[in-house]
Structure formats: structure tokens, C-alpha cells
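Design job #97: recover the sequence.
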């Protein structure tokens, strides 16, 4: 199992340190004819799937390239706006590569702050006296484990259901 990211968060929920290792993206490339059976919208300056799923393409996946030309935000590498390009029937058939976008700096700050809030609420709302808060959350795609040390540091790790993918956060009280 590999560690993809490390976060250090202070007691107030502020992100102190963050490190990203190379994360292999799961990408899907498909050839489409006009009209697209997916709904694409601009979100956080990225063109993302907002409705419709098929062949490994999921809601939230971003357009990474069109016909082998990389997409940077709303535009292709050669300066064409992605939404306008995809709305023109003369450009079809075309090949679009979709994948999960990397988190922006702002999204990383929000993630750290949100986890701090959930951790604090979990320890206060627990029916058990002296609860340490979140120990494990499980979803259909990952497990989040939180281990609190004697020095009040918490290590939080996200484990994807596939054993080769692990996401780690270190949470520190200062």
C-alpha cells in the first residue's frame, strides 16, 4: 500500500503541512458521437461531468483531454473553449479522456477544516463518556481510520477498497 497524501492540521483546523505524492489517476477514454449523452458543466474552473454515468465515467470526473489535446481548466491546450468545442456537431466524432481531477489548494484547506469539525463534533456527541471521536468511517469506496495517540495526535488514513491505494492524513493538536 502506498501513501498518496499527508496533511498536518492544527487544533483550530488549519492546514499546517500537506504533501502530495504522485497519484496514479484512473482515467477513461471514450469516442463519442453528437450529441453527448453526458451533461458537462464548468465547476471550480474545470469542465466536469454533472449528470450521466457510463463505461467508468462518473459524476465529478473532469475532461482531461479531447482528441489527444490536453485540457487546462475551461480551455484546450490550443486555446479553444471546451464547452463551445463540444457543442459544435462538426467536431464529432471525437475522443474524450475523463478522470478524477487533483484537489486544488482551496479544496485541501476545506478538507482539513471539515475533518477537524467532524472530529470535534463526533467526540462531543458520542454517548460514551471520554470518547476520542471518530475511529472509523466506512463508505462503498473507502474506509477512513482515525488513531489517537497518547500525545493527542491523531493519524487519519483513508483506505480505498483496492489494497494499492491509501490516503493518509496526520492530525495534530498543538
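Job complete. Output follows.
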Amino acid at each position: 500500500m502506498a501513501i498518496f497524501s499527508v496533511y498536518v492540521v492544527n487544533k483550530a483546523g488549519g492546514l499546517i503541512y500537506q504533501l502530495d505524492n504522485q497519484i496514479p489517476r484512473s482515467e477513461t477514454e471514450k469516442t463519442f458521437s453528437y450529441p453527448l449523452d453526458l451533461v458537462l458543466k464548468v465547476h471550480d474552473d474545470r469542465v466536469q461531468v454533472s449528470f450521466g454515468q457510463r463505461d467508468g465515467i462518473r459524476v465529478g470526473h473532469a475532461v482531461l483531454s479531447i482528441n489527444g489535446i490536453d485540457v487546462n481548466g475551461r480551455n484546450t491546450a490550443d486555446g479553444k473553449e471546451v464547452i463551445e468545442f463540444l457543442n459544435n456537431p462538426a467536431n464529432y466524432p471525437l475522443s474524450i479522456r475523463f478522470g478524477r481531477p487533483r484537489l486544488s489548494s482551496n479544496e485541501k484547506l476545506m478538507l482539513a477544516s471539515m475533518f477537524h469539525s467532524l472530529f470535534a463534533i463526533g467526540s462531543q456527541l458520542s454517548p460514551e463518556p471520554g470518547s476520542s471521536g471518530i475511529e472509523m468511517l466506512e463508505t462503498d469506496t473507502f474506509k477512513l481510520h482515525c488513531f489517537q495517540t497518547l500525545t493527542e495526535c491523531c493519524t487519519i488514513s483513508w483506505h480505498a477498497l483496492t489494497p494499492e491505494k491509501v490516503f493518509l492524513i496526520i492530525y495534530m493538536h498543538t
